[in-house]
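Intended use. Records like the one below are meant for learning the mapping from a protein sequence to its folded structure. Do not use them to infer anything beyond what is encoded.
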Amino acid sequence: MYRILIVDNEDYVVEGLIEVFHQLPHLELEVIGAFSAKEALEWLKRTKVDIVISDIRMPGMDGMTLHREIVRYWPRCQVIFLSGFNDFGYAQRAIRGGALDYVLKTDGDEVLITAVEKAVRKLEAEIEINALIAKSKNQIETAGAALQKDFFSNMLQGDQIGQSALSRQFKELSIPLHPIVPALLVIGRVDEWAADIVYYDRCLLLYSIQNIAGEYLDTTVVQVSFVYDRFNLIWLIQPKEMNPSSIPRIQEETWAMIERFVQGTFERIQEACRELLKLKLSVALADRPAGWGELSPKFASMRSELAWGLGSGQEMLIVNKENAAGESPPFSQLHNSVYQLNRLTECLNHNLPESFNDILTEILSQGSFEQNYYMAASLILSIQPQGLNLLSSGEQVDGDRLLRPDLFASRSEAIDYLRECGNLLFDCKNRLLHEQEDELVFRVKRIIGDNLGNELSLTAIAENVNHNPSYLSRLFKQKNGVGIAEYITDCRIQRAKDMLGDPNRKIQDIAAAVGFSSVQYFYRVFKKAARFTPQEYREKLLHEHERK
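Structure written out for the chain above:
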């Protein structure tokens, strides 16, 4: 999905183009309108924007000045200028300044649609898959990054390093990050590998994900990334040229901008992985930078949230928030205590019950049965969400029975019960996922119903429920069969129909009450949905009432 921002000081231009682009489902656009350059800047600060269509002559700040600000916030954003004047000088300056295209308002919608399709193709073609694979092969042949991976992996596992040693290690390992500046932690997870994929191909794809991320991130930040295990990748990110001695306000503003940039950019990285590599990537992002000594608990918390997060379990994009209550997520306790059982933990994290049972059988057939049994049982009991029934019927893991294999008639019966408890855990996880996503969709619908007369962009709704816009859009459509924009329009039209039954209410007042900024736009949308104009629909209602 691409986010397109339409900027013009003429209301009818913005509203008309919003309607045009809402009718192009093949482009998968979230369309936002701004009625001034100042309002456009607020959107650019607020969320990632992929394409901007802007009038080149506007009061206050013209389109050329706005373009410079767009590039500052989102360097890969494609800009298309609109103008009511056939001025070759303006067009030439716009293209030289980096704009994608220059379209006259008199050219018609088709020309503008073609320009937007061109912008989408350029966004999709920014990364060439063959070049990525070649670059990935070179990386595999170079072992230098392995030292950095081991260093940061140990740090994430809890190794504490003094400041002087940290600075020396960064220098010796040629780590491009600053040792006294905190870092923003990002975890990426490949949700599913093909069953027949071999080790070498998996390595190529993991390095390709790193290269895709590097193409998008390196324009604005300094980052180190590495493959953590066969499913997960890690990014550690800092702003470019941050002065550690700068005043706190400047540092806070810089980090706030970087955090918005990173969150918006990982939306595009997810889409690039899906389109180019045919891989579904879930992402957990830290909500704030962490000092090097704070990375281990942050890492544990983020892996837990990624494992138990909302959604279908695939292509999640989650911003990890600090837990004010101080409660430990279900997986945090396992970070160190069951490290030796990481294969089982991976299965639980990635919702792989069949692999879990296969690995459990393998583990229990090797070494000390009692030791391995108690380790697996402890793993299951540690992960069980506190205070939650594993099944809606109220059935829970019987911890006393699970930890007493001697109570069973045979070793095989004890193993069967251990496996049954593991399956209950998977059932619980799936139920929790569905319950949480149903609750989220309910909240979104309630927000829409309560605010039909106010701004209801996807970005505004996502901010209200503290979720990423692209992820929220996918989840809502998955659960309801229609997108959020279509659902909002349907609700507005239905509310308008109800209000049109009152002959004392003016149509212009009804349009404003259901969120339309102009009567003309309301008429066009209403007629398309109801096959009647608002006035015709009102007359139809009155006629039906008189017949009764």
